[in-house]
Amino acid sequence: MPKMRREARASEGRSQRTGGGGAMQGIIFNKDFGQHILKNPLVVDGIIEKSGLRSTDTVLEIGPGTGNMTVKLLDKAKKVIACEVDPRMVAELQKRVMGTPVQHKLGVLVGDVLAADLPFFDVCVANMPYQISSPFVFKLLLHRPFFRCAVLMFQREFAQRLIAKPGDALYCRLSVNTQLLARVEHVMKVGKNNFRPPPKVESSVVRIVPRNPPPPINFEEWDGLVRLAFVRKNKTLAASFKSKSVLDLLEKNYRIVCSTNDPPIEVAVGFSIKEHVLAVLNDNDFATRRAKSMDLDDFLKLLTCFTDANIRFS
Question: With pLDDT > 90 as the criterion, what percentage of the chain qualifies?
C-alpha cells in the first residue's frame, strides 16, 4: 500500500476517536447509534442556558456520549438521568464522574430510549441520534406527568419541520402534530464541525414546551385525520378523500360507530360514504382547502365536523 494511502487511512481512523474531555481514548464511534459527540463547549453552554435549569430539577439526558454536557448538567441540577444505548459510553461516563462531588447525582439507563419507560423528569436535554428523532418527539410529548421543557439537538431539516408554519415548504404532519401538543421555538444553528466525527448535515437546537393542559381531543383521531390530509398536501381535501382505500376505511368506521351508538343509528340502504364525506367538506367550506395551508384551528374545526357526522379515523 502506498505510504500516502496508509497515512490517510490512519488519519481517518484517528478522526473517528476522541479524548472525550480527557475521559476516553481509542473508542471508535458507532454510526449505527448515530454517535456524533458535541465537542464545542460554547454550544453545550448555550443548550444548558436555554433549558433554564433550577437546582431542584431532575434532568433526562438522551445520548450523553462521553459526558461533555452531562458533567455541566450535574453541576446545576439536583439529578441527571442519562439514557445511553452503548455500554462503552456508559462505562466512560461513569468513569468520568467517579470520585467527584457530583457522582451521587448521576443515574444511568442503559438501552434503547424508545423501548424504555421514561422516569419522572423536569427537563429533557439531548443531542439526539438523528434516526430516532421523530418517534422520540412523540414519546416525549405523550409522556406523563408533564415535564417543563425540552432542549433538543436535531438534524437541521427535521428541526425546520417542527417549527414550520402553514404555507412553508416543509410544513407537514410532524409540524401540525408537534405544535398541537407543544410550543416549539428554534434556539440556535449548530454547524457540523462542532461534532466529532462531523455528521454529513447541519444541526439545529429547538426548545419544546408542552401545552399543559393538552387540547381536549382524541389524539389518535386527530392524527388519523392529519395523516390522510398530508398524504398529498398540495391536493384539495375533496380530492384527498376520494381515494378508495380511504373511503373503505371511513365507511368501516362509520358503520361501527352507528352500530355501537346508544341507541344504534340505522344506516340507510344505498348509503354512500363518499357522498357523506363530500357533504361534510362542502357544508363547512373545506372541499377546496389544502392541507399545506391549514393551521391548527382549521384542523380542529374539520375534526369536529367529521366527528359530528359520525366519521372516524382510527
Answer: 85
The candidate with the shortest Cα–Cα distance to 127, out of 190, 217, 54, is: 190
Distance between CA atoms of 40 and 226, rounded to whole angstroms?
A: 39
Nearest to 304 by CA among 217, 229, 186: 217
Residue 32 confidence (pLDDT) above 90? no
Helix (H, G, I), strand (E, B) or coil at 145: coil
Q: What residues contact residue 63 under an 8 Å CB cut-off, 6+ apart?
A: 34, 35, 83, 84, 85, 126, 127, 128, 129
> Which one has a higher pLDDT value, 233 or 31?
233
Which among 154, 140, 151, 73 is positioned nearest to 107, based on CA atoms? 73
* Side-chain half-sphere CA neighbours of 227 within 13 A: 10
Residue 11 exposed, middle or buried by CB count within 10 Å (0-12, 13-18, 19+): exposed
The type of residue at 82 is: A
Q: Which three cell numbers mark 83?
A: 439514557
Residue 61 pLDDT: 98
Largest CA distance in the chain: 84
Gyration radius from the chain CA atoms: 24
Q: What are phi and psi of 287, to 5 degrees?
A: -60, -35
What are the cell numbers at 105? 447525582
Contacts of 256 (CB under 8 A, 6+ apart): 312
Q: Does this model's pTM top 0.70?
A: yes
Residue type, 95: K
Instruction: Report which residue type is found at 30.
Output: N
Instruction: Answer yes or no: are the C-beta atoms of 112 and 90 closer than 8 Å.
Output: no
Reported as a single tens digit per residue, the pLDDT across 217-274 is 999 999 999 999 999 999 999 999 999 999 999 999 999 999 999 999 999 999 999 9
* Calpha distance 187→203 (Å, rounded): 11
